[in-house]
């Protein structure tokens, strides 16, 4: 069951500059940052609020680390902006299987590693009304 907005992913050319915009404009601070080489991104997670399912909601700022990454490709075509939304679930495997059975393409056979030790998969934007959609099981809620 999808129980929260885990994060909104925002693509940017310059992570440090974008982090500073969110700090100066809204007062949001970096909760966590990391490089995910598999996904080709350097990212900063800005925690917005805890949620009543024991998780939290974040803004995820993404800067590509290589030109062939999905985010670099997207930035070249669209410029900076909202790249994807992510729903949180305690069971990414089960929810991905249920959604796949409804005819939506799930992009990974098995969930991969996401921010802060989470397990993630993506749904094809062309099957989701133009919205790249991610499913996330955070490390805290993962029974695996
Ligand atoms: C591509 N398309 C999008 C889109 N990316 N539409 C909405 N939102 C996006 N973000 C559209 C394109 O405009 C194009 O439409 C069509 O999908 C095919 O795109 P493409 O540029 O030709 O590229 P493909 O097919 O090679 O790849 C698209 C695909 C890919 C969605 C399969 O981007 C992908 O695998 N994304 C999932 C992984 C990802 O994005 N990782 C970065 C965040 P037209 O109409 O022109 O045909 S990593 C992350 O977020 C992690 C760290 C985490 O949360 O923990």
From TrEMBL:
Protein's GO biological process: L-methylmalonyl-CoA metabolic process
Domain VOC residue range list: 4-138
UniProt-listed CDD domains: MMCE
InterPro entries for this protein: Glyas_Bleomycin-R_OHBP_Dase, MeMalonyl-CoA_epimerase, MMCE/EMCE_epimerase, VOC_core
Alphabetical keyword list: Metal-binding
Molecular function terms, GO-annotated: metal ion binding; methylmalonyl-CoA epimerase activity
Keyword Metal-binding: yes
Keyword Metal-binding: yes
Pfam family, one: Glyoxalase_4
PANTHER family xref list: METHYLMALONYL-COA EPIMERASE, METHYLMALONYL-COA EPIMERASE, MITOCHONDRIAL
Protein family membership: Belongs to the methylmalonyl-CoA epimerase family.
Protein name: Methylmalonyl-CoA epimerase
Protein species of origin: Streptomyces tateyamensis
């Amino acid at each position: 069951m999808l129980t929260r907005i885990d994060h909104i992913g925002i693509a940017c050319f310059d992570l440090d500059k974008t982090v500073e915009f969110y700090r100066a404009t809204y007062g949001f601070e970096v909760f966590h940052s990391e490089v995910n080489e598999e996904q080709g991104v350097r990212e900063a997670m800005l925690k917005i609020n805890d949620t009543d399912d024991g998780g939290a909601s974040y803004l995820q700022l993404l800067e590509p680390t290589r030109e062939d990454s999905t985010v670099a490709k997207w930035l070249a075509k669209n410029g900076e902006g909202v790249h994807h939304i992510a729903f949180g679930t305690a069971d990414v495997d089960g929810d991905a299987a249920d959604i796949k059975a409804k005819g939506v393409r799930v992009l990974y056979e098995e969930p991969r590693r996401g921010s802060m030790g989470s397990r993630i998969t993506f749904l094809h934007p062309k099957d989701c009304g133009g919205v790249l959609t991610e499913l996330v099981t955070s490390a805290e809620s993962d029974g695996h």
